[in-house]
Each structure stands twice: as C-alpha cells, then as structure tokens.
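Input structure tokens:
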C-alpha cells in the first residue's frame, strides 16, 4: 500500500514548498520572462530607448551564418563532453569500487576537481597546454606534435572539451560510485559462480542496474555542456580562433555584452532555452523507456 502523508491544515504543504517555489520564480521564471520580452525589442547600447520589432531579432539569427555555425559547434562540444565525461567517470568509479586499501584516499582525490570553479579549470588547462611552457604541450612537442590552440581550431576544441570533462568527472563519479555500491553483491557472486567473466558480469548485470543513474547523469551533462561551460570557454579560448569554439551560451554573452546587441542576445537565449527544454523532454520521452528501475 502506498504511504501518504496527511497534513492537518490545507495551507501547511504550500508553506513548506514556498521557499523552493520562490527560488524557481526569482531565478528561472522571472529571468526567462525578461528574456522573452527583450527578444521582441531593439535597444540602444545604453538602454535609454527601445522599439518593438516583433520577430525581427529571430529572423536575423537565421540569416546569421556565424550563429548557425555555432549550432554545429555546440552539438559537437556537447556530444564530446557528455560522452567522454560519462565514460571516463564510469571507468574510474568501477576501478575505485574495487579498491580495498586506501579507498578513501582515491575517492577523495577523484572528487576534488568538482570544487574548482569553471573559470579556474579553464585557466588551469590553458597553462598546461600553453606552448612552450605548458607540461602537456611540452610533452606533445617531444613526440612531434606542434600544439597551438590559439591558431588551430581542432586544438582549441580539444582544450575546452578536456577542461569541461575534467571539471564534470567528479560529479559523475560520485553518482556512478553510489550506484555501484547499491548493487547487491550476491548477484555478481552468483554470476561468477555460473562462470560469467568480469566483462560479461558488467554488461549484463552492472550496467543495466546503473541505467537510472546513467540516464540522470546524461540529462545533467547535456545541460552542463550547454550552460555551465561558459566560464571554461571564456577563460580558455574566448570563442576563438575566430568563432570556432563559440558555443551558443558564449555567443549569447558576446553579442549581448560585447557587441551590445541586447535584443539579438535575448533572442538567442530564448532559442537556447527552447533547445535545452526540448532535448530534456526528448530524453525523458525516448531514452527513459530503456531505463530499468
């Protein structure tokens, strides 16, 4: 029988959820409504005069080749960040889950990167990839690779992907490790007795039981790649070289605060919000069907 909590007064549940509702209203619905309102206006650089233009800002976006190119850049960046971040974190979680001695030390070291701010993560990896002083760039030069993320688009994309994945690995690792520790050991022991190899036990028992955790992290990582990586891109490449690493969220900032196109920037933020909401709905609509709860 389903357990239900009964409140003596009808208003008490609303009082308990009011703080969370207030936070969502102030930090999501209010800014979102402001963006929608500004997307149908044009303003001067100082915001002293505005003019209603309807959907003109959106029409300009679809005629802007650099904006359309940023869609491809964002799609590539998001797939790499989410895919690599989940795969590496799962591998680390499986390895850490099997550690017996000094397990706490390994887990603590793997969690530390999550405490680093995105801007700091970007600057840290820029230092390591900067030629010729950086540790990684020096190692690459020793094997004949001339690294230059300031001129090479592939190198620049690699830099921000590595920084973004490194920043998010700790978050993914925590959830994967918790999911692994919740799997009954008796299932794995029974499979081992039946002769199943470690790889077969992982793909037939462990990974299916981790599907709820994997699905949750997939949604979170896609949102992370679209929004929370702005600081990394700004600190590492500033959208360069050219506009080759200007993902959608960075272009919103650049056009709004540097190019002073407030209406166009607001229109971009509305489009970005719609894309992320649509991707989240599609993930829940189709991918969740394959999740075993």
């Amino acid at each position: 029988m389903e357990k239900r909590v009964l409140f003596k007064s009808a208003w008490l549940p609303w009082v308990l959820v009011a703080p969370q509702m207030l936070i969502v209203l102030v930090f999501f619905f209010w800014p979102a409504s402001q963006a929608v309102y500004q997307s149908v206006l044009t303003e001067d650089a100082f915001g002293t005069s505005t003019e209603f233009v309807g959907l003109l800002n959106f029409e300009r976006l679809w005629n802007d080749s650099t904006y359309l190119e940023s869609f491809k850049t964002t799609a590539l960046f998001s797939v790499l960040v989410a895919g690599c971040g989940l795969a590496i974190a799962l591998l680390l979680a499986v390895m850490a889950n099997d550690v017996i001695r000094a397990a706490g030390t390994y887990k603590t070291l793997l969690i530390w990167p999550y405490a680093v701010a995105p801007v700091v993560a970007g600057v840290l990896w820029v230092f390591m990839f900067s030629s010729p002083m950086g540790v990684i760039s020096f190692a690459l030069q020793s094997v004949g690779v001339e690294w230059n993320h300031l001129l090479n688009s592939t190198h620049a994309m690699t830099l921000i992907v590595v920084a973004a994945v490194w920043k998010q690995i700790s978050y993914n690792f925590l959830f994967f490790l918790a999911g692994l520790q919740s799997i009954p050991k008796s299932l794995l022991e029974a499979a081992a007795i039946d002769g199943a190899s470690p790889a077969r036990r992982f793909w037939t028992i462990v990974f299916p039981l981790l599907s709820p955790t994997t699905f949750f992290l997939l949604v979170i990582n896609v949102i992370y790649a679209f929004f929370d990586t702005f600081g990394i891109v700004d600190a590492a490449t500033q959208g360069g070289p050219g506009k080759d690493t200007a993902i959608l969220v960075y272009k919103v900032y650049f056009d709004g605060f540097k190019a002073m196109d407030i209406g166009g920037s607001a229109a971009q933020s509305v489009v970005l919000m719609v894309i992320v909401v649509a991707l989240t709905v599609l993930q829940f609509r189709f991918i969740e069907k394959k999740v075993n709860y």
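The longest strand covers residues 41-43. The CA atoms of residues 117 and 213 lie 24 Å apart.
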